[in-house]
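Long-time lurker, first post. I've been practising inverse folding by hand and with some scripts of my own, and I keep getting stuck on stretches where the structure tokens seem ambiguous. Below is the full token string for one chain I'm working on. Before anyone asks, I'm not after the true native sequence, just a reasonable design that respects the backbone. If someone could post their per-position residues I'd love to compare against what I wrote down in my notebook.
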């Protein structure tokens, strides 16, 4: 896993190091890219390629880096005053606090567009590149993450039912976690049927990931406050936890992860060790 992270990070660092544009833009993109993300999306993609017995080569780390760039750009924009207005992310200043708002907006813009330059330049068959570009735009744009974000903001103060919460999770978080599975399937040249199965696995894992994130948000708040959670923390926003309660949300998380493991076992993959390890890690809460 460490080698996968290291090689992806090399692509991320070198991309902005080698470009000759205003240095504070490179500093701002690199600051957030190297601020300590877990790299779960690249790891899922690279582990799925290995599961399909594909030998990892530089182009694969470029695809992994492209995905991480979009993810990082979305976090920079998510923290902006017009959105969540956060001062800290991963224990460090958010991008607009460290630099300024205009720089953070532009750093996000670069991180949304540069991935397509990376993909279009990588050494993969042209038809694969076209499919990856299409899938990444689908995952991140108005069919995916951006749509989820705007729905989430529109629904901030509303009480949502389970299917409304799931739809937002699916778009905002799920699509970007589905890309690693679908992208690996494209490069492994799997059948249309298996591609559909991969999409379903990604969607389940995406939902599980967001439920886990919601659980951790609440449990971290408890730990920081040093007391049992009040209704105020749990009910601030409609989430799986506010709807079902903490214990039922945990049960649902484990149930989804079991479904993911079962669905993985019927694919034509042969080397499951890293991908199963990643799923198992998500069971820890
Ligand atoms: C224009 C592509 C584009 C996006 C802008 C701001 C925005 C639209 C979307 C926000 C999406 C968002 C913040 C989703 C949350 C997803 C989530 C659970 C993030 C945390 O992911 P981790 O745990 O983070 O992988 P690390 O820190 O490990 O990278």
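-- Answer (accepted) --
I ran through it position by position. Result:
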């Amino acid at each position: 896993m460490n080698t996968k992270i290291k090689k992806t990070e090399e692509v991320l660092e070198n991309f902005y190091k080698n470009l000759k544009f205003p240095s504070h833009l490179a500093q701002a993109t690199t600051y957030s890219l190297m601020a300590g993300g877990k790299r779960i999306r690249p790891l899922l993609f690279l582990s799925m390629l290995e599961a399909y017995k594909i030998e990892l080569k530089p182009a694969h780390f470029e695809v992994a880096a492209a995905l991480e760039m979009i993810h990082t750009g979305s976090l920079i924009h998510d923290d902006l005053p017009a959105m969540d207005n956060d001062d800290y992310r991963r224990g460090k200043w958010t991008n607009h606090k460290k630099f300024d708002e205009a720089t953070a907006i532009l750093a996000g813009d670069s991180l949304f567009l540069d991935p397509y330059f990376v993909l279009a330049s990588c050494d993969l068959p042209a038809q694969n590149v076209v499919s990856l570009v299409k899938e990444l735009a689908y995952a991140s744009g108005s069919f995916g993450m951006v749509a989820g974000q705007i729905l989430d903001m529109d629904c901030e103060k509303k009480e949502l039912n389970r299917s409304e919460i799931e739809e937002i999770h699916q778009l905002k978080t799920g699509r970007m976690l589905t890309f690693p599975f679908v992208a690996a399937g494209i490069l492994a040249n799997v059948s249309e049927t298996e591609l559909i199965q991969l999409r379903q696995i990604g969607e389940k894992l995406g939902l599980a990931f967001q439920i886990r994130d919601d659980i951790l948000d609440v449990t971290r708040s408890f730990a920081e406050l040093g007391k049992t959670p009040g209704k105020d923390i749990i009910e601030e926003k409609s989430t799986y936890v506010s709807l079902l309660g903490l214990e039922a949300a945990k049960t649902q998380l484990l149930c989804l992860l079991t479904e993911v493991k079962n669905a993985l076992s019927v694919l034509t993959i042969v080397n499951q060790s890293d991908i199963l390890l990643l799923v198992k890690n998500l069971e820890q809460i």
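A couple of notes from the structure itself: The domain at 162-285 is CATH 1.10.600.10 (Farnesyl Diphosphate Synthase). The chain has two domains: 1-124, 162-285. Happy to go over any region you disagree with.
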